[in-house]
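G., the chain you wanted modeled:
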Amino acid sequence: MAIVRWDPFRDMQSLQRSINRLFDDVFLADERSLPATTAWTFPVDIKESADKVVVRAEIPGIRSEDVKVNLHDNQLTIQGERRQEKEEKGDRFLRVERSYGAFYRAFNVGVPVKAEQIKATYKDGVLEVVLPKEEKARPKEIQIEVL
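Predicted structure as tokens:
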């Protein structure tokens, strides 16, 4: 067993954090129960194959008409807004952990794509954007001749 030197300030700092937490719980409870309305971000997976780039974004609880997907100068942008639920009379939020408000992400595709053939689908809270690569961007396999 290792010997640990006693530090009186460590105990005081722990006590201070506990007191701060207590005051935060009491005085900030009303502020924490309000839904957040700031910008938020969402997770994505980006996969590349020989003929396409596929972007999958998790944005549950969003209507498809509240999402905009754009490609400009080889940069894909996904943006939109999650609308806040309205509190009904007599009800109050006990905890709000979901984010509300505008969201925005931009990704550099990195390869030329066929802009006119891009397809976007939205199912079960997952947005999938398929970006077909241009012919010149596809890798070309060259056969090696053995002499």
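The two ends are 70 Å apart (CA to CA).

Shout if anything looks off.
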